[in-house]
Specification:
By secondary structure, this protein is α/β, with parallel strands linked by helices. The chain has 9 helices and 10 strands. It has a domain of 172 residues: P-loop containing nucleotide triphosphate hydrolases (Rossmann fold). Helix content is 38%, strand content 24%. The strands form 2 sheets. The chain has a 6-stranded mixed β-sheet, with helices on both faces. A 4-stranded antiparallel β-sheet has the order 2-1-4-5, with helices on one face.
């Protein structure tokens, strides 16, 4: 068996007296798509952000491809370059064109030549369906298009794993599917993904495993089929019953 790509072991996270993550153990295999769901305030986004150390942990360990996450400095920057992250907000540089937004990291961090970075960026922008927008500024694109650019920008760093923290929650309903379609495509291409989302359709369609969190803990994990049809915990049953009634 190959080593898991991401290993989260006995992770605790405190904000003062409040414990946001409790005894988190999670492994993610290469090419696996893990969808993290649960009620608001359950620790989903905090967990996602600890995996590339946007949030520090109080105790425990997180390893990516066999290397423990460094505390800070160049080693952290290098490892973080291998972990793509897509947020709720698109975080594109408003004064740079779409093409410049996607090439900035590969040129500055990976040391790619401009021509090579641009060639790769154009291929990625085509892949996410916004290749024709390369010369525009972010403000000239819809929210769904900007989020697809944000995905292309993360992919341009050639990450080993992609983290998505509620990537569709800031979008209008008609734009959600265009972003989810890109993510489903990535899943089919074998990208390792950890996705925090409220989009249950995506979880059913693309996930290998659903991880259900509540009150800072992983309550249960199962295949989508098993989780949505036969949840084990009372907490998950309650969560799913509320989803279905709306």
């Amino acid at each position: 068996m190959a080593e898991p790509l991401v290993v989260v072991k006995d992770v605790q996270k405190h904000y003062g007296d409040f414990q946001a993550l409790k005894d988190i153990d999670l492994t993610v295999d290469r090419g696996e798509v893990v969808v993290v769901i649960g009620p608001s305030g359950s620790g989903k986004s905090t967990l996602c952000r600890t995996i590339n150390r946007l949030e520090t942990i109080t105790s425990g360990t997180i390893t990516i491809d066999g290397k423990e996450l460094p505390k800070e400095g160049k080693a952290l920057a290098n490892l973080r370059a291998e972990v793509g992250m897509v947020f709720q907000s698109f975080n594109l540089f408003s004064h740079l064109t779409i093409l410049e937004n996607v090439t900035l990291g590969p040129i500055r961090v990976r040391g790619l030549k401009k021509a090579e970075a641009e060639k790769e960026a154009r291929e990625l922008l085509d892949r996410v369906g916004v290749g024709h927008q390369a010369s525009k500024l972010p403000a000239q694109l819809s929210g769904g298009q900007q989020q697809r650019v944000a995905i292309a920008r993360a992919l341009a760093m050639r990450p080993k794993v992609m983290l998505f923290d509620e990537p569709t929650s800031a979008l209008d309903p008609e734009m959600i599917n265009e972003v989810l379609d890109v993510m489903v495509g990535l899943a089919h291409d074998g990208m390792t993904m950890i996705v925090v989302t409220h989009e249950m359709g995506f979880a059913r369609k693309a996930a290998n495993r659903v991880v259900f969190m509540a009150d800072g803990q992983i309550v249960e994990q199962a295949t989508p089929e098993e989780f949505f049809t036969r949840p084990k915990s009372a907490r998950a049953k309650d969560f799913l019953s509320k989803l279905i009634t709306h």
